[in-house]
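Translate structure to sequence.
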């Protein structure tokens, strides 16, 4: 399993737009076989940083999702929404291997 960690720098005056963008992507990631762990918007501290976490069974399946999302009409609309609203200033993507508690 691989978990994608996204660290966003946002326009702090467009948090409402980013929240809408986030809600668009959660079902889209799941549509392509991923498990979305949610978006985390600013609360206390920095007012322009948000995070997202989602997992795929393998890096190969994540890459397939990335390729397929570039052709999917709903994904294209979500990309366009972010571009039109300019709610995202920049983002960084990292990948992690999750470790969970011992099996019961």
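Result:
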């Amino acid at each position: 399993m691989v978990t994608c960690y996204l660290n966003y720098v946002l326009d702090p005056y467009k948090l409402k737009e980013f929240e809408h963008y986030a809600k668009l992507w959660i079902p889209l990631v799941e549509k392509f076989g991923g498990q979305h762990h949610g978006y985390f918007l600013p609360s206390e501290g920095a007012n322009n940083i948000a995070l997202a976490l989602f997992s795929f069974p393998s890096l190969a399946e994540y890459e397939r999702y990335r390729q397929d999302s570039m052709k999917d009409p709903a994904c294209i609309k979500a990309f366009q929404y972010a571009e039109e609203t300019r709610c995202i200033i920049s983002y960084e993507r990292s990948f992690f291997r999750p470790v969970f508690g011992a099996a019961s």
